[in-house]
Design a protein that fits this description.
two-stranded antiparallel sheet
């Protein structure tokens, strides 16, 4: 029997059996392992693509919400300005009415 250092771990060694059954099983095991790794990698790539699409969608939604928020804030400021002007006009009309009533009574 021959001892060989395995490439995936330099500290581990394996005893290789030269019989055809062991060689076939080892070959099949590596092929199954490789198939598993490839399928796992493909699943990982698909999941990464889904995450990327979700991230892009979230970024687009964030931009839309930010623009809408800015628009609403601008509208709110315009309404506050209108309210301030309406209060000023109301106050001035009340003052004018008070002056007219004072002149008429006095």
């Amino acid at each position: 029997m021959q001892q060989v250092s395995l490439s995936f771990s330099p500290k581990r060694t394996a005893i290789l059996c030269p019989c055809a059954v062991c060689v076939a099983l080892t070959t099949e095991m590596y092929q199954c392992s490789w198939t598993y790794v490839v399928s796992e990698f493909i699943e990982f790539v698909v999941n990464q693509e889904l995450c990327r699409k979700q991230w892009l969608e979230a970024t687009v939604q964030y931009a839309e919400f930010t623009a809408r928020c800015d628009e609403i804030q601008h509208d709110n400021e315009a309404l506050h300005t209108k309210l301030k002007h309406a209060r000023l006009v109301h106050w001035l009309s009340c003052q004018q009415l008070y002056v007219n009533v004072s002149k008429a009574s006095g």
